[in-house]
Amino acid sequence: MAQIPRSSSYGAADSAEEEKGWRFERRYMVALLAFFGFANIYAMRANLSVAIVEMTSGIDQSINGTTVHLPGEFENWTPFVQGAILSSFFYGYILTQIPGGFLAHRYGGKMVYVAGVAGTAVFTLLTPPLAKMGYSMLIFARFMEGLLEGVTYPAMHVVWSNWAPLLEKTKLATFAFSGSYFGTVAAMPISASLGQHFGWPMIFYFFGLAGLAWCYVWWKEVADTPSQDLKISTDELTLLQRDAINTNTYIVPWRMILASKPVWATVIAHFCQNWGFYTMLTNLPRILGDLANYQLEKAGFIAGLPYLAMGLVLIWAGQFSDHLRKERGMTTVRVRKFFCVVGFFGQALTLLAASLTRSPTWLVAWITISMGLGGLTWASFSVNHLDLAPQYAGHLMALSNTIATLPGMLGPLIVGIVVVDYTVAQWNVIFYLTTVIYALGGFMYVRWASGELEPWASDHLPFASELS
């Protein structure tokens, strides 16, 4: 696993720390546990894309040397029904983004984040019995998972507004977010293997229990703010308090937020990136089966490769972004635009190449490269909220992620309508649509993005003044 980034010199505080010898500072512990938190919630989100193939199409098993096909338990679910099940998560997810930002600013990112993960884990454990009651109950379970998980990204932005020094926010935040992709990497082959050997219900039991185990560790080890952490060193506390932002005493200027072009640059980039990501998240095992003739267990393993590439690129891009800003003196906006535009247009070109190839090996290679380049865009727009208005970062992420959830709702339904016979031509329609959306995201970001503090973020109004 990639190493958690350590900061370089921060003056006297770091010099004193170096004299005492190396220590694993508390903000890196927060980053490590946040990494595993996102890994858990994305594993619980992604496992259905593998499980539903087994649930509807069945599996092939070797019995006494003979391969026997075992029919799926829910073979009567049509492609449209499957699309509705896969998209139901996002109907809940979209509802709690903005409430999640308010809750995290008021009650603390630590509590809201763990509540979201714990609730998702509980409904993951309930998925098998609910599914056996009918697809409408499975839709309900996935809706509730989305509803509870929707608070996690806004909550984590509030965590980083307290725990990330000014020149480390990109690498700490992107390291934590990269857990999403490593969790997806793990979920694909583990889900395929569990389903093949123990049946599809075990997929949900395994990841649900893993999520609850993580919640216990997070609650015991993480504090809402550095000043509440009993294990933090004086030097690290001094460093973090120097860059501290008050995140819960100001009126949120929604009118100015909604009129801000830099805010909309991040929102549009987030939407366009999620269109491609969610399309692959919910359909990649099926794509590999239809276009590359991979069986479920092999498809589950291969489907994890693009997310591994994306996670590794995101970690590298986050660290390199802060290196360019701190050591090379590049402006924040230049760094953000460079990574985002290269990522988007690279994704568009490589996905177009995937649509043109007829080789299963090259299909996997182009999809992997395309998804991997998404790490460049995430290292840009996902932390841009902290550049524009750190004290409102949770609210901005909530707005951004609300709109960026729409692809998760619409994408599976569009796939269900377009891809009826699972042919190359039908899947290429989905690839071409995604290519156009990637290009749009890159164009709008380079036009409107900023890396500077917004005027309305430096002229905030305390509640007390508003009420007097």
UniProtKB/TrEMBL annotation:
A single GO molecular function term of this UniProt record: symporter activity
For this UniProt entry, which segments traverse the membrane? 28-45, 80-104, 111-131, 198-219, 263-281, 301-318, 338-357, 363-384, 396-419, 425-446
Primary residence? membrane
Which InterPro entries does the protein's record reference?
MFS, MFS_dom, MFS_Na/Anion_cotransporter, MFS_trans_sf
Q: Which GO terms describe its biological process?
A: carboxylic acid transport; monoatomic anion transport
GO CC annotations on file: basolateral plasma membrane; lysosomal membrane; synaptic vesicle membrane
UniProt entry keywords in alphabetical sequence: Cell membrane, Cytoplasmic vesicle, Glycoprotein, Lysosome, Membrane, Symport, Synapse, Transmembrane, Transmembrane helix, Transport
Subcellular location as annotated? Basolateral cell membrane; Cytoplasmic vesicle, Secretory vesicle membrane; Cytoplasmic vesicle, Secretory vesicle, Synaptic vesicle membrane; Lysosome membrane
Membrane topology, record value: Multi-pass membrane protein
Signal peptide: which range, if any? none
* Domain Major facilitator superfamily (MFS) profile as annotated: residue spans: 26-453
| Known function | Receptor for CM101, a polysaccharide produced by group B Streptococcus with antipathoangiogenic properties.
Official protein name in the record: Sialin
